Amino acid sequence: MSTSIEKKIGQMFIMGFDSLEVNDHIKYLIEQYNLGNFILFTRNIENDNQVKTLCKDLNDLVLKHSGIKPFISVDEEGGSVTRLKKIIGEYPSHLSLGLKNDENITKEVANYIGNKLKGLGVNMNLAPLADINSNIENPVIGIRAFGDNKEVVTKMVNAMWKGYDEANILPVIKHFPGHGDTNVDSHYGLPTVNTTIEQLKNNELVPFKKCIEDGVNGIMVSHVIINSIDKKYPSSLSKKVMTELLRDEMGYEGLIVTDCFEMGAIKDNFEIEKSVVKSILAGADIIDVSHTKELQERALKAVVDAVKNGEIKEEIINRSYDRIMKAKKKINEEKMIVKKQLDMEKLYLELITGSDGKIKYNKEKSVVLGVLPYSGTPAEDEITDNLEVVKIISDKLKINGINFKYDITKEEINELIKEVKKYDEIFLCTADMDIHKNQYEIYEMLQNKKVILINMRMIPHNLKYKPMAYVNVGGYTDLSVKVLGDYILNKVEEN
After folding, report:
1. What pLDDT score was predicted for residue 474?
2. Residue 458: phi, psi to the nearest 5?
3. In this model, does residue 186 exceed pLDDT 70?
4. Pick from 184, 262, 256: which is nearest to 225 by CA?
5. pLDDT of residue 183
6. Among 20, 36, 90, 383, which is most buried by a count of CB atoms within 10 Å?
7. Quick check: 63 and 330 in contact, CB under 8 A?
């Protein structure tokens, strides 16, 4: 029995909904528009049994309606981007793994998480990132990338997607052709990059090229305009990017998945109906519309109408459908899966890097200054209350501590400096100094002190003075903060 064109179109979308169970919203899209794939966020997550039931119910409903098992996907990157933290716990950010630069560890982490996902009923992970964080002021990538070195990023992303693949999870590496050189967050606006094609090929495209050569079967395309390729359209709408570059030039034969079409880069600049049709004509296989029922219905209907009126030829739909079916067949095959347990606290401790030797300090003359945690981008999960790094370190060392906000004002900085005049050693915990430059001001105003610089997120690039000692954490999360306290306690030596 042949599959109708409407059912094939339903396979070309991933959509989300706001509920812990199958609700009328998602049921309607399945039954009326043959929706075939889903994305889960923290709003869909409560506990182990609930997620298993949700995935099973989605699976059963789609199977009953179309006879095709769905992709059930998540953005499970690690660090501060983890949708299933309540169930599977924390694991390191890409940056932490990149700083360690150990392929075996990275692959083991992915395999460990992949097995957890599979056990819940999730079969697609919109990760890992192949982006190179080449712009230190990038507001959206940062610690989500393995680093700013193309060789490190290439090694790590290749190890990670293979770890997921071995757990029978379909990894979707992102954000082609690179989101690391932008200074705009595509959740809010439309980034434009002026990189030349030669620069792209020598840097941003290197990790993607290696993954393609090794057989990766899922690539997410970004909402970034690359002026040297297509001045008019972002990559997710560009035939020059998806078909001519990714397919024809780079020889990629797997699935092309778009970033979410409800992000500001698309929603604020293009009509949903025109954008989804344009994206499919440009080469996308699966379009992500993650949240709003009205936009989701308009997107699905637009593609059905475009096929009926001849704007999209059926052969284009059939081509994408065949790729989707091939990928689904692979992840649904039974195979021997090796499950390995990891001690995450031990791993986190191993991933922290710092100056050689002991850190000398005087308990009476030392203080901890620390930036309060924050979400750098909507991709990151909500910050929890127990992330206060100052409290952890001050409790461990039995010294005083002072918090400050990442957007601290000049007046507040001056008050802070006055407050720490009486101390000799300053444990200064910062986060993304290259983005929030007010933290440079704090650091530079402390140069008459002995500063132990603790980088919670990105490592600063423009320090005018060398700290007495440094510690690189690579992520500001519950577990990284907890483990950092133990690391510091082991590292210090009282005068």
Report:
1. 87
2. -75, 150
3. no
4. 184
5. 65
6. 36
7. no
The three state secondary structure string of the chain is CCCCHHHHHHCCEEECCCCCCCCHHHHHHHHHHCCCEEEECHHHCCCHHHHHHHHHHHHHHHHHHHCCCCEEEECEEECCEECCHHHHCCCCCHHHHHHHCCHHHHHHHHHHHHHHHHHHCCCEECCCECCCCCCCCCCCCHHHCCCCCHHHHHHHHHHHHHHHHHCCCEECEEEECCCCCCCCCCCCCCCEECCCHHHHHHCCHHHHHHHHHCCCCEEEECCCEECCCCCCCCHHHCHHHHHHHHHHHCCCCCEEEEEECCCHHHHCCCCHHHHHHHHHHHCCCEEEECCCHHHHHHHHHHHHHHHHCCCCCHHHHHHHHHHHHHHHHHHCCCCCCCCCCCCHHHHHHHHCEECCCCEEECHHHEEEEEECCCCCCCCCCCCCCCCCHHHHHHHHHCCEEEEECCCCCHHHHHHHHHHCCCCCEEEEEECCCCCCCHHHHHHHCCCCCEEEEEECCCCCCCCCCCCCEEEECCCCCHHHHHHHHHHHHHHEEEC
The phi, psi pair for 361, rounded to 5°, reads -155, 155
The pLDDT tens digits of the residues spanning 221-278 come to 999 999 999 999 999 999 999 999 999 999 999 999 999 999 988 988 899 999 999 9
Averaged pLDDT, 50-70: 95
Mean pLDDT, all residues of the chain: 91
Cα distance between residue 435 and residue 418, in whole Å: 25
Q: pLDDT value at position 383? A: 61
| Pairing between β-strand 469-472 and β-strand 353-354 as defined by DSSP bridges | antiparallel
pTM: 0.91
Work out the end-to-end distance of the chain between its first and last CA atoms, rounded to an integer number of angstroms.
80
Between strands 192-193 and 170-171, the pairing is unpaired
**Dihedral sign from CA coordinates of 188, 73, 253, 103:** positive
Encode pLDDT of 203-220 as tens digits.
Answer: 999 999 999 999 999 999
In 3D, which of 382, 286, 304 has the Cα closest to residue 15? 286
Q: How many CB atoms lie within 10 A of CB 192?
A: 14
Note whether 146 and 152 are within 8 A (CB): yes
Q: How many CA atoms lie within 13 A of 290 on its CB side?
A: 22
Bridge partners of residue 287, in order along the sequence: 13
Query: What is the rounded CA–CA span in Å between residue 122 and residue 116?
Result: 9
